C-alpha cells in the first residue's frame, strides 16, 4: 500500500508528519510505503533526524509550492499546481498512491479532492466526518464543515456515508445513526431536522432518533448527522474546550506539585487520539488532519487511511449508492 | 423588591430553591421579599428546615399543580392555571412581584412569559440568553433555544437585546458583539450568517465580527449571537462536557487520593456559577434555571433577577427599541 503524506501541513512541518510516519512504520512495516510530498530539502533533513528507515519505506516527491491562507480553496488546483496538496491528490488520481493524508488547509484539501478525485456517482455532497471522543466509543459526526445550508436529503446521505465508515473503520456492524437536534421528540427541531428525521425514519439505517447536545458526550450513537454549520461550530468548540481543560489541568498540576494520574482524563479529552477526518463520498481516500497535529495525531490519521484502503471503503460506498444489497445494515431496529 | 420563586422546578424541589433563597438573604436582606410559589406544605417544611428567616422575607403562594413534561408548552396557561409557573408569572403581570425565577420546564416558562407578560413593542422574537463560562469573562450567548429557523434581522435584534443585558447585568460599557460562524472572514458561513453579518456591520453596535467555535472559550466577545438551534446544541454540549470533565476529575481524585486543588478548573467549567438564563425581550423579568440547579445556581439566578430589576433592564430595552439615544453604545469601533 502506498500513502501520500502531505509534509507541508502542520505547524511543525515537515518534522511532525515524518515523525507520524515513523510511528506508523514501527507498527506496520511490511506493506506500507510513504510518498512524502513537499519541499524536498527539509523533508530529507527531517528523515535523517527521525531515525533509521526500512529500505523502500519512503519516497519523496518534490512539491514546494505553498497554499496560502488567503488562496480561494476552489482555485488551488489552478493556482497552486505544484503544491503538496494538489500533487498528493493528483498522485492518487493517477493511481500512484492509494490514499492521501494532509494537515494542510481543510478547504484546499476538500476542494482539490472534489475536483481531482470527483464525487462518487450519486453523491450530492461529499461530507467531512470527524470522530468525537465520548465517554463510550467515539462518535463519527458529519458533516463537520464541508456543506452549509443542507437539505434533508443531504443529511440522509451523510448518514449512509457515515454508516459505511463506521462499519469499515470503526468495526461497528449495525451503526446507530442519530440526528443532532434540540429535543428528543420527533416534533422538535428546525425545518431541516424535522424533515431529515422523517427521511431517516423511513430509511434502512439503524436510526436511533434525535440526539441532543448533552447526549453527544455519552456516546449514544456511532454516527451523528448534522448540517456542516452546526457540525463545524461544535467540532471547533469541542477541540477548544478539551485543549482549554488540559491546559488548566496542567497548570494546576504544576502549581500544586500533585501526582494525580490524569492520563484517563486527558485521553478522553485529547483530540490527537482520533486525528484524521475523512472526506466521505469522493472517489478516493482523502484524510484531513488538524493543523496543530502532533506526530501521534498524524500517525492515527495514517492508520485511518490505511484501513480505509484495506477495507475498500470507497468500493463499499459505491456499491451502497448503486443500491446493491448490504447485509451489514439490519434495517430499522 | 419582590421576587417570585418557583418552588417546583429543580430535581431537589422545593429544598434547593429555598436553600438558594436563603443564601441570597445572607447577602442582601433589607429590601428583598421572596414569594415562594408551589405546594404549600413541602415549602413550609423546607422553610423550617433551612434555618431562621427574617420577618417579612418570605411569603408563600399555594400553587400545587404540576406541569408535566408531555404538556405542550403553549398550552400551559390554559391547562395548568394553578401551576407554580403560571401563578408566578401572573403575579408579575399583576404587579405583585418584580421578577420571576424558575427551574421548571424551559418551554413552559418561555411560552407562559410570552403569553402573560407579552413581548415588548417592536420585539419580533424574545430570546433566551445564557452565560457561557470562558477563560476570560463569561459570554452571553443568545438565542439559546427559544427560536429556530431565524432570519437575519432576528439575529440583529438578539444582538441589541444581549448588548443591553451585558451593560446592565454584566457591567460592560460597550459590549463586544460577535456572530457565531464557521470562519473569521465576512465571506464565510451559511446564508443566515452572511446576511446577519452585513446587518450587524451596519448597526450601531460594537460588532467584532465572526466568532468561531474555537474562540468561544477564549471569551473574545461579551455577546454572541446565533440561531436558537445551534445555540441550544452548543449550550447543552457545553454543560455536558463540563459535567463529564468534573466527574472524571472527581473519580481520579478519589482514586489517586490526590490533593490537587482543582477549584480553579472546576470554577471555570462549573455551570452553577452562572445559573439563570434571562428571557430577553418580554415585558418583565423572567429567569430560567437548569432543572439540575443546586442552591448556589438558584442563588445566582436570583441575583440576576434582582439586578435586572434594579437597573430597569426592561425599561432600558424598551427605550432602545423606541430608538431613544443610548450613550452606552459607542457605535462601530
List the helices and strands and how they pair.
The structure is a homodimer of 333-residue chains.
Chain A: E1 2-6, H1 15-27, E2 33-38, H2 40-50, E3 58-62, H3 76-79, H4 84-93, E4 99-102, H5 106-116, E5 127-128, E6 130-132, E7 139-142, H6 152-170, E8 176-180, H7 191-202, E9 206-211, E10 223-225, H8 228-256, H9 263-269, E11 277-280, E12 286-288, H10 295-310, H11 313-321
Parallel strand pairs in A: 1-2, 1-4, 2-3, 4-12, 7-10, 8-9, 8-10
Antiparallel strand pairs in A: 5-11, 6-7, 11-12
Descriptive report:
The structure is a homodimer of 333-residue chains. The first copy, chain A, is an alpha/beta fold and 333 residues long. Helix content of chain A is 42%, strand content 15%. Chain A is built from 11 helices and 12 strands. In chain A, helix 4 runs parallel beside helix 5, helix 6 crosses helix 7 and helix 6 packs antiparallel against helix 11. The radius of gyration of chain A is 20 Å and the shape is globular. At the A-B interface, helix 8 and helix 9 of A face helix 8 and helix 9 of B.
Offer a few descriptive terms.
homodimer, 333 residues, alpha/beta, seven-stranded mixed β-sheet, five-stranded mixed β-sheet, globular, 11 helices
Order of helices and strands of chain A: EHEHEHHEHEEEHEHEEHHEEHH
Largest sheet of chain A: 7 strands, mixed
Structural class of chain A: alpha/beta
Q: Mean pLDDT score of chain A, rounded?
A: 90
Rg of chain A (CA only): 20 Å
Q: What proportion of the residues of chain A is helical, as a percent range?
A: 40-55%
Distance between the termini of chain A: 38 Å
Count of helix runs of chain A: 11
Uncertain runs of chain A are: 327-333
Beta-strand percentage range of chain A: 15-25%
Oligomeric grouping of the chains: homodimer
Total beta strands of chain A:
12
- Largest interface, with Cβ-Cβ < 8 Å? A-B, 50 and 49 residues
**Widest beta sheet: strand line-up of chain A:** 3-2-1-4-12-11-5
What's the shape of chain A?
globular
Amino acid at each position: 500500500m502506498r500513502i501520500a503524506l502531505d509534509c507541508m501541513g502542520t505547524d511543525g512541518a515537515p518534522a511532525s508528519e515524518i515523525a507520524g510516519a515513523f510511528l506508523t512504520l514501527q507498527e506496520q512495516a511490511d506493506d506500507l510505503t510513504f510518498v512524502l510530498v513537499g519541499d524536498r530539502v527539509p523533508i530529507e533533513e527531517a528523515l535523517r533526524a527521525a531515525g533509521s528507515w526500512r529500505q523502500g519505506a519512503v519516497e519523496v516527491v518534490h512539491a514546494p509550492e505553498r497554499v496560502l491562507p488567503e488562496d480561494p480553496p476552489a482555485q488551488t488546483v489552478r493556482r497552486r499546481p505544484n503544491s503538496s496538496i494538489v500533487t498528493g491528490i493528483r498522485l492518487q488520481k493517477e493511481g500512484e498512491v492509494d490514499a492521501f493524508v494532509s494537515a494542510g488547509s481543510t478547504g484546499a484539501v476538500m476542494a482539490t479532492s472534489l475536483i481531482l478525485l470527483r464525487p462518487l456517482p450519486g453523491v450530492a455532497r461529499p461530507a467531512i466526518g470527524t470522530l468525537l471522543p465520548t465517554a463510550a466509543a467515539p462518535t463519527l459526526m458529519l458533516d463537520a464543515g464541508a456543506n452549509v445550508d443542507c437539505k434533508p436529503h443531504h443529511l440522509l446521505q451523510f448518514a449512509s456515508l457515515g454508516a459505511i465508515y463506521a462499519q469499515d473503520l470503526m468495526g461497528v456492524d449495525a451503526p446507530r445513526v442519530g440526528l443532532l437536534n434540540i429535543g428528543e421528540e420527533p416534533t422538535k427541531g428546525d425545518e431541516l431536522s424535522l424533515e431529515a428525521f422523517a427521511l431517516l425514519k423511513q430509511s434502512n439505517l439503524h436510526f436511533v432518533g434525535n440526539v441532543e447536545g448533552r447526549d453527544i458526550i455519552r456516546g449514544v450513537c456511532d454516527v451523528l448527522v448534522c448540517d456542516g454549520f452546526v457540525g463545524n461550530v461544535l467540532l471547533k468548540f469541542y477541540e477548544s474546550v478539551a485543549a482549554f481543560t488540559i491546559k488548566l489541568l496542567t497548570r494546576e498540576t504544576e502549581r500544586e506539585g500533585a501526582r494525580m494520574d490524569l492520563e484517563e482524563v486527558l485521553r478522553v479529552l485529547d483530540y490527537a487520539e482520533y486525528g484524521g477526518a475523512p472526506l466521505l463520498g469522493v472517489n478516493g481516500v482523502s484524510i484531513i488532519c488538524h493543523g496543530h497535529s502532533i506526530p501521534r495525531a498524524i500517525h492515527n490519521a495514517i492508520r485511518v487511511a490505511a484501513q480505509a484502503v484495506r477495507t475498500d471503503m470507497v468500493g463499499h460506498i459505491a456499491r451502497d449508492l448503486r443500491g446493491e444489497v448490504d447485509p451489514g445494515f439490519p434495517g430499522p431496529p
